[in-house]
Amino acid sequence: MPEIYIDDFVGISNKLETLPLAFAIRKTYGHEIILDWPELDSFSVADTRRGTVRILARIGAIRLRSCDDKRFRGLKNRKIILRSLDGPAFRLDPIYLEVAAKIRLNPDLAGEIRETFSRFGDRPVVGVHLRRGDYAEVSDDGYDVTAIEWPSVPIWWYEHVMAAVARRQKDVLFLLSATGDPTSYTVIRKNFDVVSMNVPNPYGYKCGGHESYVHPVADMFALACCPVILATPLSGYSHWAANVLGGPSTCLVPVPGMSRGEPGIGSLRLYGMRLPVWRAFGRQSRNLSRVSVSMAGVDLSRPAHTDWL
Fold first, then answer.
1. Looking at the DSSP assignment, which residues form a beta bridge with residue 127?
2. Do the strands 49-50 and 62-64 form a parallel or antiparallel pair, or are they unpaired?
3. Are 169 and 252 a contacting pair, CB within 8 Å?
4. Exposed, middle or buried by CB within 10 Å (0-12, 13-18, 19+), for 146?
5. Is the distance from CB of 105 to CB of 221 less than 8 angstroms?
């Protein structure tokens, strides 16, 4: 049986994004899928096995970093080290959520998430994903997706939207998922009713400035329980939480080109769409449904949904 190896080459959400292509290859050619990921002590993926990508695995393997359909049709009987986050849409789109359903969270972590939310009963919950560090701030005055490849969202935009949410939904609880220096967002914890997962990060792979102090898998699955998420556009982590795991979430995102003086809010619902679609929407302001500061049209009344865990 030919083999597909996926090693620990990126963060958790991007590794998950390789799975649909791996399963499309498996479905067509019968490959075995072998995962070499440290996070597999936190979740499992059905119809795969855990292994290591060492020298013997690499001998004779092709490195698949991109894959159009012509390349796909040449993969029969080939040993593959897979690093492609995309592939032929007509092969991947129909199985995307089917593949996501193969991912099962460790029962202990699922229990931690349920317990965290259960403390707040039926209070409405809104998730907040602050991605810092590897997503860099271009300017404190605006949000420009053309200046650099991975721009962070200014903290003041999150403050602006969280304040609008709290005015509309007085009893709202915010679930904060963040990377980077915690001192950069202390104002959010000070000014809003915020909770974070209390599960330490056991992995040491984050680069300086991009550290995650909370367990990244528990954090992403908890974020996926939130019906509304203030997301980081372009981020695969926001994407998997909002559009893949759990049920559909409404994403509130900054409008590209917005400024501190006009902090535009956009809305996206892309459940079941793949990462390239999410990123295309994140780079084009014309793709977004606009949301007023009154939060009209956004349902902020729902509690976290944990039944799917």
1. 175, 229
2. unpaired
3. no
4. exposed
5. yes
User: 3-class DSSP state for residue 112?
Assistant: helix
How far apart CA 87 and CA 20 sit, in angstroms, is: 9
Q: What is the DSSP letter of 152?
A: P
pLDDT, tens digit, 9 for 90 and up, residues 172-210: 999 999 987 777 789 999 999 999 999 999 987 555 555
Quick: pLDDT tens for 101-144: 999 999 999 999 999 999 999 999 999 999 987 888 888 899 99
**With the C-alpha atoms ordered 138, 13, 234, 25, is the resulting torsion angle positive or negative?**
positive
Measured between alpha carbons, how far is 153 from 208 in angstroms, rounded to an integer? 19
Does the pTM surpass 0.90? The reply is yes
Token readout for 148 is 């650099």
Q: At a CB cut-off of 8 Å and minimum separation 6, what does 112 contact? A: 197, 198, 199, 218
* Structure tokens that stand for 56 in this block: 């013997």
**Amino acid identity, position 49:** R
What is the number of other CB atoms lying within 10 angstroms of the CB of residue 3?
16
